[in-house]
């Protein structure tokens, strides 16, 4: 499990693509690789991956074709930066909301607004997933736990303070890029339960 509090920005050093599998070599800040063990879980842009090897501050992860298809990891290139969070431990403070690291869908960043002292990002999601997106509700974008601002059709926004921009890749975001989305599990459970009782349409098909 993860908390949605991004621990920093990592850099993709190398990507090795093989039939049905891609291996990512990702460099984390030195302080964040202490105590890492093979088999440990790390969220990369919100996607839970398993450490398969370590060389100094570089961690290696394998991603299958299904993971590459459902997330933005397949679009990464050497030199790109990503958000990361190591798995939560018992006793850790939950500063965001609990995440599984299982990406539900992807969204496109369609507009960036820069009012004084903060940034507003507007995202567009596939229509079927809007059933889980509500104003003031939780959502995880590239692994960061955020509060939804406004919702208009299949678009929603989030408001980011300077600290969030500094600590995540959102400070470098550009219009048109794609991000990973994990819907809040409690919201999904409530909406799907109501749907089974006949109060809403069926859940989306992956």
TrEMBL record:
It catalyses: 2 6,7-dimethyl-8-(1-D-ribityl)lumazine + H(+) = 5-amino-6-(D-ribitylamino)uracil + riboflavin. Catalyzes the dismutation of two molecules of 6,7-dimethyl-8-ribityllumazine, resulting in the formation of riboflavin and 5-amino-6-(D-ribitylamino)uracil. GO terms for biological process: riboflavin biosynthetic process. Pfam families: Lum_binding. The lineage of its organism: Bacteria, Pseudomonadati, Pseudomonadota, Gammaproteobacteria, Pseudomonadales. Lumazine-binding repeats lie at residues 1-97, 98-194. This is Riboflavin synthase. Signal peptide: none annotated. Keywords: Repeat, Riboflavin biosynthesis, Transferase. Residues 1-97, 98-194 form the Lumazine-binding domain. Its EC number is 2.5.1.9. InterPro entries: ATP_synth_asu-like_sf, Lumazine-bd, Lumazine-bd_dom, Riboflavin_synthase-like_b-brl. Transmembrane segments: none annotated. It comes from Marinobacter gudaonensis. One of its GO terms (molecular function) is riboflavin synthase activity. Pathway: Cofactor biosynthesis; riboflavin biosynthesis; riboflavin from 2-hydroxy-3-oxobutyl phosphate and 5-amino-6-(D-ribitylamino)uracil: step 2/2.
